[in-house]
Design brief:
TIM Barrel; eight-stranded parallel β-sheet; binds 3-hydroxy-3-methylglutaryl-coenzyme A; binds magnesium ion
């Protein structure tokens, strides 16, 4: 059965801008404020990772501290370890996200350790977050394929998802990092994970490299999942997944949901304008078909 409402988790300012040419902190703040103004209430605003690995996110602290906060909006950031967690808290985030993978090779390339080592690193972060009542989201990358290993066993996706959930992550975001999934496989993957993690604790984080993300989301919505990660203007990719393009454009998924009578609480015109503005700053074409049709 399809959900009545979908919660959009906007990742453009992080997943998007981490893989674009660097933009000023001011432009990031403007983007984040425009997204909130369009009615988005869950915004990933930055990433506290090594600035040597991802220089585009090096100003996350400054960005998060400079946002004029909108009431009811949760501002989040990626934190791979305790150091990142402490920096994120100091910047004033409402919640954080840890990120693991269902592929050993991707884990090594992305965070320089094995899946097991990453879990060990997350333990002190989770303990600290619990003691401070900070919600932690958990990402699992490569759920429908890996740029280094190819196909990934869905049992491994379910295993890693369950570990993160049982460690205390309030939601598990399933990342098709390189956008290779197709609808039937995507749905089976979600159904398999949902045997170990309640379906209402799952989110879809689908990159649109092969143009399949919208179809994959539609197939998965029927499993009961109702949280979708998306990136305004289809910004971005992943620096450790060569050839990956951005997440599905938020405008495109909101347009589809509107047409299906599924509520998101988002003003599509304002959202499309936010995407246009950041695309202009980047000097790139807007990656949202809907935004290009609307504006
Ligand atoms: P490491 O080299 O194994 O860690 O990197 P380390 O603890 O040995 O530290 C090395 C250096 O990094 C040290 O500095 C640390 O201080 C510093 P140095 O002594 O060389 O000057 N450092 C930090 N600096 C700032 N913030 C921190 C931090 N931690 C250590 N938190 C590490 C391990 C995880 C840090 C590194 O591999 C890294 O930063 N990786 C970046 C990964 C990344 O950001 N990838 C993109 C995001 S994930 C993604 O896009 C996928 C997702 O969207 C889902 C999907 O699509 O599938 C989420
Ligand atoms: Mg991603």
């Amino acid at each position: 059965m399809l959900p009545n409402k979908v919660s959009i988790f906007e990742v453009g300012a992080r997943d998007g801008l981490q893989n674009e040419v660097p933009v000023s902190s001011n432009a990031k703040v403007q983007l984040i404020e425009n997204l909130a103004d369009a009615g988005i209430n869950r915004i990933e605003a930055g990433s506290f990772v090594s600035p040597k690995w991802v220089p585009q996110m090096a100003d996350s602290s400054e960005v998060i501290k400079s946002i004029t906060r909108k009431q009811g909006v949760k501002y989040s950031a990626l934190t791979p370890n305790l150091k990142g967690f402490e920096l994120a808290l100091d910047a004033g985030v409402d919640e954080v996200a840890i990120f693991g993978a269902a592929s050993q090779s991707f884990s090594q390339k992305n965070i320089n350790c094995s899946i097991e080592e990453s879990i060990e690193r997350f333990i002190p972060l989770m303990e600290k977050a619990k003691s401070l009542n900070i919600p932690v989201r958990g990402y699992v990358s490569c759920v429908l394929g890996c740029p280094y290993e190819g196909d990934i066993d869905v049992a491994e996706v379910a295993r890693v998802s369950a570990i993160l959930y049982n460690m205390g992550c309030y939601e598990i975001s399933l990342g098709d990092t390189i956008g290779v999934g197709t609808p039937v496989k995507a749905r089976r993957m979600v159904e398999t994970v949902a045997k170990q993690v309640p379906v209402d604790k799952l989110a879809l984080h689908f990159h649109d490299t092969y143009g399949q993300a919208l179809a994959n989301i539609l197939a998965c919505l029927e499993t009961g999942v109702s949280v979708i990660d998306a990136s305004v203007a289809g910004l971005g990719g992943c620096p450790y997944a060569k050839g990956a393009s951005g997440n599905l454009a938020t405008e495109d998924v909101v347009y589809m949901l509107n047409g299906m009578g599924i509520e998101t609480g988002i003003d599509l015109t304002k959202l499309a304008k936010a995407g246009h503005a950041i695309s202009q700053v980047l000097g790139r074409a807007n990656g949202s078909k809907v935004a290009n049709a609307l504006l």
